[in-house]
Recover the amino acids of this structure.
């Protein structure tokens, strides 16, 4: 394809253009006026339809097909300029999708590229010669019209190429300018609705990198206390453990759970049938030993042999009395009594009835209701600041809006698996202040242990960092 600079050709006689007047005859004048009116109506319809285009593809196809009929062209192509100075065909009249690998399409693209983007904003006539190509295109000589789409007298990087066999007339150029301004306005409208989006697409990676750097810097500079959450339970601070003094079977519990008891009050009754029998047997042995010692004491006045046996009988009496006292003590221990005043803490009484117990087995606790502490079960993965004196805030489930302040007193040296298999440290915290309103023992909640200040980045990404190190070993 070769490009020959053209100029506005003279209008040949007999050429009729839709919408242009004819200089000869009243009939021709009337027909011309009717054609002008029809062309104006069609132009208004085209300008109205292009405002309904919502994308560039719709706009290009509309221009290539509707403009093709308005200007009576043989071929109509719409091209836009991409990166650099390269022009690409976007739509072809009468074709749903242009074949970009076609030799004819590539020839038209090279033609517009040689024409240059600085060809001005006015329509320009061209002499087009199409040489035979490898795809079987026959040689053809035609008249081309390059119409750059403009907005405010400025080319917007898109254009319209028309080719026909007959020369172009001034009426065609006037109509082409009108259509170029209309479609240029439509292109600018679509660009305006997407300009912000395109700007964000261009600046998005840089802005994202800048925001990321600023966020990491802020996270590294902000200092927050490293805190750990753990389940908490209200427990007595120094309870007295009521343990079984001897092996036996629990007959009944004599106090209700949570009842207040005084020193010496009976708490637990063990089965004492065997102990009572042992005491009665020991009491009979004492009576027998005392009778024998009294008889020998009376006989020792007259007989020397009885006087010698009296010492042995008195020793047997003292032994029998000691056995009786021991049996009485064992019988008294069948009833377990409170050694201090407080509140009895244990589970369901029916769970203990008929239950055998060993010596020293814990049955219940007696604690002061005003002396409390908090037991925390801290997971081994969160045991990062279990330091004595650390600040602890306890949020009980019964009063979530009234946190209790406490201080960490001690923590177990070894983590023990709980029922779910998670290793946990048992931590004891004591309340800092005492206002006379101690929470009920057994209440549960959540405690927050506060440690030394660390960066916000470490506070947020401590667990991901631990998981990454455990996964990679770095």
């Amino acid at each position: 394809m070769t490009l020959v600079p053209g100029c506005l050709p003279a209008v040949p006689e007999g050429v009729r253009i839709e919408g242009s007047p004819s200089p000869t005859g009243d009939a021709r004048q009337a027909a011309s006026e009717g054609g002008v009116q029809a062309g104006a109506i069609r132009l208004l319809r085209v300008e109205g339809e292009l405002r309904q285009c919502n994308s560039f593809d719709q706009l290009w196809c509309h221009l290539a097909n509707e403009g093709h009929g308005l200007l009576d062209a043989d071929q109509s192509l719409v091209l836009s300029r991409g990166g650099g100075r390269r022009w690409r065909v976007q739509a072809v009249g009468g074709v749903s999708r242009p074949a970009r690998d076609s030799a004819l399409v590539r020839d038209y693209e090279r033609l517009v590229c040689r024409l240059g983007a600085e060809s001005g904003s006015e329509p320009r006539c061209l002499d087009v010669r199409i040489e035979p190509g490898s795809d079987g295109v026959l040689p053809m000589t035609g008249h081309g019209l390059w119409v750059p789409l403009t907005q405010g007298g400025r080319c917007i990087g898109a254009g319209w190429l028309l080719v026909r066999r007959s020369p172009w007339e001034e009426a065609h150029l006037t109509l082409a300018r009108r259509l170029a301004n209309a479609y240029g306005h439509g292109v600018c409208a679509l660009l305006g609705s997407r300009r912000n989006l395109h700007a964000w697409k261009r600046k998005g990676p840089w802005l994202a990198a800048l925001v990321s750097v600023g966020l990491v810097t802020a996270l590294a500079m902000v200092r927050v206390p490293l805190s750990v959450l753990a389940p908490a339970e209200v427990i007595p601070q120094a309870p007295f453990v009521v343990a079984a003094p001897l092996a036996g079977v629990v007959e009944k519990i004599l106090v209700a759970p949570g009842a207040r008891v005084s020193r010496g009050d009976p708490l637990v009754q063990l089965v004492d049938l065997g102990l009572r029998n042992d005491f009665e047997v020991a009491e009979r042995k004492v009576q027998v030993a005392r009778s024998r010692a009294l008889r020998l004491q009376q006989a020792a006045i007259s007989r020397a042999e009885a006087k010698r046996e009296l010492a042995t009988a008195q020793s047997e009496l003292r032994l029998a009395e000691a056995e009786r006292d021991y049996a009485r003590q064992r019988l008294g221990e069948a009833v377990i009594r409170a050694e201090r005043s407080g509140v009895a803490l244990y589970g369901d009484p029916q769970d203990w009835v008929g239950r055998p117990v060993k010596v020293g087995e814990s049955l219940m606790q007696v604690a002061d209701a005003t002396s409390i502490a908090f037991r925390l079960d801290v997971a081994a993965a969160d045991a990062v600041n279990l330091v004595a004196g650390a600040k602890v805030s306890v949020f009980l489930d019964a009063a979530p809006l009234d946190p209790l302040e406490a201080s960490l007193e001690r923590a177990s040296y070894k983590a023990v698996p709980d029922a779910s298999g998670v290793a946990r440290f048992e931590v004891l915290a004591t309340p800092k202040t005492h206002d006379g309103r101690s929470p009920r023992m057994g209440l549960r909640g959540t405690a927050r242990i506060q440690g030394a200040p660390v960066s916000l980045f470490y506070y947020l990404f401590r667990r991901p960092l631990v998981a990454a190190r455990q996964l990679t070993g770095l």
About this structure: The longest strand covers residues 223-236. The domain at 228-236+368-472 is CATH 2.40.30.170 (Elongation Factor Tu (Ef-tu); domain 3). The chain has seven helices and 21 strands.
